Amino acid sequence: MFEKLNAIPPDPILGLIAAYAADPNPKKIDLGIGVYRDEAGNTPMLDCVVEAEKILLRTQTTKTYLGPRGVPGFNQAIGETILGKDNEVFKQNRVRTVQTPGGTGALRVAADLVKVTRPETELWASDPTWANHLALFPGAGMAMHSYPYFDAENSSLRFDDMIAALQQRGPGDVVLFHACCHNPCGVSPDPEQWQAIANLAGERGFTPMIDIAYMGFERGIEEDSLCIRLFAEQCPEVIFASSCSKNFAMYRERVGAISVIAGNAEKADAVESVIHNVTRKNYSMPPAHGPAVIDIILHSEELTAQWHVELAGMRNRINGLRKTLSEKIAAAGIQRDFSFIQRQSGMFSFMGLTVEQVHRLRDEFAIYTVNSSRVNVASFNEGNMDYFIEALAVVLDE
Ligand SMILES: Cc1ncc(COP(=O)(O)O)c(C=O)c1O
After folding, report:
1. CATH code for position 373
2. In angstroms, how far is CA 247 from the centroid of its own chain?
3. Which residue from 100, 211, 376 has its CB within 8 A of the most atoms of ligand 1, so it is best to mutate?
4. Residue among 43, 100, 104 to mutate when testing ligand 1 (max atoms within 8 A of CB)
């Protein structure tokens, strides 16, 4: 069976993690892996999660299967958090949310759902997009294309080019968006631009699919889910894949959900039946622990309030680091303009370095980042930022 099989090279980010771990340099910095870090470089559990876990341990009576929907209270609460409790689509009974193993699982189920519904559907994603999108959708058998998004020269959004490209899309096409904190480029449309994109989706009739993996990390829960609410107003059908990995710091518990808004309640039921059918053939039942914890948090006023505070703490730290980093780079006399770091949001930004400069950072300074020079801003702290800026000046030859 495996005689002719050749090994697949590891994902570059995994290779980077291994090289970083093996590096004895005490000044080493890992800017590659995409997890939130606090000032001490740790990725701690949230207090609201620890509290809810205690409640769960006291109250849980069985580990029997959950059923294909997962934890119903989680599905309801996460859908309402993203869309807003009073959203018309709930009154019209047009939304179905099904828990999945992480946001990645949600995206895969979304791809399977589309493939089963309309096998010839093709998907358009921003250029660039999360590397795993590029593997996941073709892996599910979907043809994938890109639309213009990031202007590398100005580190900004190519909004007009994006709109011109999306004007070519129509019914039967799926267009993928990052709701906030774009991974990898850190650039998001502003509210007015989102409105124009949602209007276009309504006019042209393409189906928006939104990846919302960082809700609360950019400006706030409502602000970061704005595009989904706007699409819900303009389009009869919307698909969104949410993740609780980052905003609840539940990474390894694999908590996510696929939500679909359909044209009416009957079609929404049909969609849900197809989701259950595709997940049954894949992983059968979703995991219980993480969603049960989030169910407890989102159904407790006190724990929800605590979550909001902890989420704001992570967001403010990232935004603060962005400001400090861009100011310190300018103060260090580096001529190249890095002020975009402050204008962008979420954990990621491209530093605009060549592969050679990225390798020099790694080989000469033990500063690890992927070849595209995407950095995780949350990996900076008071102790390592100046060292990074010194190294940056050297590799930029300034
Ligand atoms: C853009 C984007 N989408 C989805 C995910 C999925 O996250 P997870 O499967 O860990 O919930 C990530 C995680 O890094 C991401 O960056």
Report:
1. 3.90.1150.10
2. 10
3. 211
4. 104
Index of the ligand 1 atom closest to the CA of residue 130? 1
11 classed as catalytic: no
59 within some domain: no
Q: Are residue 182 and residue 280 in the same domain, yes or no?
A: yes
Sign of CA dihedral 375, 379, 384, 385: positive
Residue for token pair 């480029």: 185
- pTM of the model as a whole: 0.96
Catalytic residue among 30, 112, 211, 224: 211
Q: Closest Cα to residue 150, out of 179, 181, 188?
A: 188
How many whole angstroms from 181 Cα to the centroid of ligand 1? 11
Q: How far is the CA of 46 from the centre of ligand 1 (A)?
A: 19
Domain boundary among 245, 264, 299: 299
Q: Is 75 in the pocket of ligand 1 (CB under 6 A)?
A: no
Strands 238-243 and 255-261: antiparallel
Q: For residue 178, which atom of ligand 1 is closest to its CA?
A: 1
Ligand 1 pocket check for 373: Cβ under 6 Å: no
- pLDDT of the chain, 398 residues: tens digit per residue: 999 999 988 788 888 888 999 999 999 999 998 899 999 999 999 999 999 999 999 999 999 999 999 999 999 999 999 999 999 999 999 999 999 999 999 999 999 999 999 999 999 999 999 999 999 999 999 999 999 999 999 999 999 999 999 999 999 999 999 999 999 999 999 999 999 999 999 999 999 999 999 999 999 999 999 999 999 999 999 999 999 999 999 999 999 999 999 999 999 999 999 999 999 999 999 999 999 999 999 999 999 999 999 999 999 999 999 999 999 999 999 999 999 999 999 999 999 999 999 999 999 999 999 999 999 999 999 999 999 999 999 999 87
Residue of 99, 224, 243 to mutate, ligand 1, most atoms within 8 A of C-beta:
243
Query: How far is it, in rounded angstroms, from Cα 307 to Cα 355?
Result: 39
State the residue range of the domain holding 152.
Answer: 65-299
Contact present, 244 and 255 (Cβ < 8 Å): yes
CB-based contacts of 384, cutoff 8 Å, min separation 6: 27, 29
Same domain, 343 and 277: no
Q: Is 194 one of the catalytic residues?
A: no
